Amino acid sequence: MTDAPGHQRILLVTGLSGAGKSTALQVLEDLGWETIDNFPVRLLGSLLGGESDHPAPLAIGFDSRTRGFVPAETIELCEQLATRKDIELTTLFIDCSAAELERRYNETRRPHPMARERPVAGGIKAERELLATLRSWADIVLDTSDYTSGDLQQVVRERFGKSGGREMTVTISSFGFARGMPPLADLLFDMRFLDNPHWVPELREQTGLDEPVAAHIQADPAFGPAFARISETLTELLPRYAAQDRSYLNIAFGCTGGRHRSVFSAERAAEVLREAGFSPTVIHRNLGSRPADPLERS
Predict the structure, then answer these.
(1) Where does GTP bind (predicted)?
(2) In this structure, are residues 97 and 145 in contact, taking their beta carbons and an 8 Å threshold?
(3) Integer Cα distance of 198 and 31 in angstroms
(4) Residue 231, annotated ligand binder?
(5) Which residues contact 56 (CB under 8 A, 6 or more apart)?
(6) Does an H or E element contain 233, and which?
């Protein structure tokens, strides 16, 4: 991956320990960026002193563990570098809630770099205070509290990859609102206005992939007109997104439990888009979840 002759993209990747910096750098490397982790920030000016007609984009990772790291000095140095016309400097701060970070550290049993003799929560609090000014100053802040590793990888690809003329990757997912919102969705359709097959005893254990459930949903008078408008919207918008050089597009269909209406609608939408020339990937997030009456009443 190269930019205009003599012009280099520089991405500084920082954030809270455990929030996902290493994962982001790995994805950037896969995308063709040169990557360096834990680089002494005070040496950044000398690192960017080389000359090349086609410099590769460069991602530099640093955080509270990096030798000589002082947030105020880092910001001052970056402001100086940002005045150079031969580089485009962007700072990405990867954040995460304290509760989720604590869960991740307890799960992996790794010591937090700033906890020392304190509990993990104390180390997280100290690091958040240290990095507060850097977070406020950053160009982009990603909060990974509700992300899986795969979600973060996808977001990084979308923000920092280049399509290079490749076909736009379309993902259609189904999910249950009662089991949490999807972290990634460019277009979201709420199918809870349809009659819920969960309350039909013979359909409860089945899913939107089963024909009896499909027949039940299609028999709802609201389904036909509504889905026709959804199909029209998708076939109208997707070529426009592709024309904007989007690399990825995420479409989500939700219902209460994520096992019936959203699943069927996602499958039908995939058929519509395949007929329109796209090749969507379909993911059913809650298809394997158990039917639950209390959840369906929520």
Answers:
(1) 63-66
(2) yes
(3) 43
(4) no
(5) 1, 2, 8, 32, 33, 34
(6) helix 223-243
Whether the Cβ atoms of residue 27 and residue 92 lie closer than 8 Å to each other: no
21 among annotated binding-site residues? yes
229 is in an annotated binding site: no
C-alpha span between 15 and 13 (Å, rounded): 7
CB 167 within 8 A of CB 277: no
Sequence-separated contacts (24+) of 146-149 with Cβ below 8 Å? 146/100, 146/180, 146/181, 146/183, 147/20, 147/183, 148/183, 149/20, 149/23
Q: Is residue 162 marked as binding?
A: no
Q: Taking residues 219-236, report their average pLDDT.
A: 96
**How are strands ordered across the β-sheet holding 248-255?**
187-190, 248-255, 169-176, 281-284
- Does the annotation place 254 within a ligand binding site? no
Query: In this structure, what are the phi and psi dihedrals at residue 28, rounded to the nearest 5 degrees?
Result: -60, -40
pLDDT, position 94: 94
Ligand-binding annotation for 18, yes or no, is: yes
pLDDT in tens, 85-140: 788 888 999 999 999 999 998 887 778 888 777 788 888 999 999 999 989 988 89
In whole angstroms, give the CA distance from residue 94 to residue 117: 25
pTM: 0.60
Is 52 marked as binding a ligand? no
**65 in a known ligand binding site:** yes
> Exposed e or buried b for every residue in 45-58, given b needs 16+ CB within 10 A?
eeebeeeeeebebb
Asked whether residue 22 is marked as a ligand-binding residue, the answer is: yes
Contact residues for 193 (Cβ-Cβ < 8 A; gap 6+): 222, 226
* Annotated binding residue 66: yes
Taking the CB of residue 260, how many other CB atoms lie within 10 A of it? Answer: 33
Specify the pairing of strand 34-37 against strand 8-15.
unpaired
Is residue 30 annotated as involved in ligand binding?
A: no
Annotated binding residue at 19? yes
Structure tokens belonging to residue 24: 């982001």
